[in-house]
Amino acid sequence: MSNNKRPKLTTNKYLLPFILVTSLFFLWGFARAILDVLNKHFQNALDISITQSALVQATTYLGYFLMAIPAGWFINRHGYRHGVISGLALFGIGALLFIPGAEAGTFYAYLGALFIIGCGLVFLETSANPYVTELGAPETATARLNFSQSFNGLGSLSATFIVGQILFNGTDNGGNIVVPYTVLGIVVLIIAVVFSRVNLPEIKHQVTEEEIQNEKETRIVQLFRHHPMFVFGLFTLLAYEVSEISINSYFINYVTGKHWMNDNTASIVLTCCLAFFMIGRFTGSWIMRSVKAERMLLICAAGSVVCIGTVMLNLGKVSMVALVCNYAFEAIMFPTIFSLALRGLGNLTKSASSLLMMTPIGGCGFLLMGIIADSTGMLSLPFIIPFIGYFIILLFASELSRKGKPSVLCL
């Protein structure tokens, strides 16, 4: 009887750290989802194009790209806890810089603040994502990360609804963007103080035989030379980030450009889509306690390819339904790809995690969607970008399924 019981996500030993670190997923979900309404707000308030407003995403995710390896180096030396505190401090400072940014009154002042927020978020994500996979049994690592990432979805839908109502309030210039960022900055700095006072157990990784044999090589060289599936996973995660961030950022422009709804309604519908996304992650976390992660990823990638292909066919309401359904299919992708890419890396896990956290630079894919939309005037054609991304994920999942390896993190 006991053999048929599903394993627990975590143990009593790690319950408090698991709860505390999971709360961080809500925070960066909130911070990243604000961008999806912020670029449309700047289009309205500053009279700029879709391509220009895409700099909101590009600048934030440039922070991820440039700081990911330094964040990994810092966490390797000082541990997960200090990585979290540093990330929260940068995040809070960047949010409060919206106050002088508003006084400066230029788009580029806001971009500077967003860059600092991006630098803070990469410290948080590089620390929290691998840490969560280790707070319990290896066989539930993927399910555990999916569960924590579900709160990322809760943060996202909270941001699009709350901030959408503030910015798209029916006035000529919309609401004041400084207000939500000021509140967010204060909350984040308070949480940083809390983390500075608690003791998070530091997980020690086992040094593998392979690392001993290749000890003269740097960790990053070892990853690229001796772990081809990690490299495939790295580019697959980049493809996912291009797809997911681009769709979220383009969503309001797409549905308003089709004249299906106004900005305010579109932000509410986007919130509903992100609710689908969150439900998809909770459900996926539950399912993957008994279904192999690579099989789940294969099914969901196929679903996303079909959905975005339908959107590109420009079938009116059918395309709209397909776009909404895609949020459920893509929900489990980031944590699943992330944990599968880290599988079996032992003492290379922190360095590998920092490389994986360079992938949000894929948010610049929205820039490509904006260029296609502005240059062709065709609102459905830009979806070719996420379509290619989901197809790459399908190939990765197919390769993992073909190899037939157990979906266990051997950390």
Question: Could you characterize the architecture of this molecule?
Answer:
The protein is mostly helical. It is built from 18 helices and no strands. Helix 11 (228-257) runs parallel beside helix 17 (365-376). The radius of gyration is 20 Å and the shape is globular.
Portion in helices: over 70%
Q: Report how far the terminal alpha carbons are from each other.
A: 28 Å
User: How would you spell out the order of helices and strands?
Assistant: HHHHHHHHHHHHHHHHHH
The class by helix and strand makeup works out as: mainly alpha
Give the overall shape. Answer: globular
Q: Helical element count?
A: 18
**Largest sheet report:** none
Count the beta strands. 0
Give the rounded overall mean pLDDT.
Answer: 83
Percentage of β-strand residues: under 5%
Radius of gyration (CA) equals 20 Å
* Low-pLDDT ranges: 405-411
SSE blueprint and pairings:
Elements: H1 15-46, H2 50-53, H3 55-78, H4 80-96, H5 98-104, H6 107-133, H7 141-167, H8 178-197, H9 209-213, H10 219-226, H11 228-257, H12 263-287, H13 293-312, H14 317-330, H15 333-341, H16 349-356, H17 365-376, H18 384-403
Helix pairs in contact: 1-6, 1-7, 1-11, 3-4, 3-6, 3-16, 4-6, 4-8, 5-6, 6-7, 6-16, 7-12, 7-15, 11-12, 11-15, 11-17, 11-18, 12-14, 13-14, 13-15, 13-18
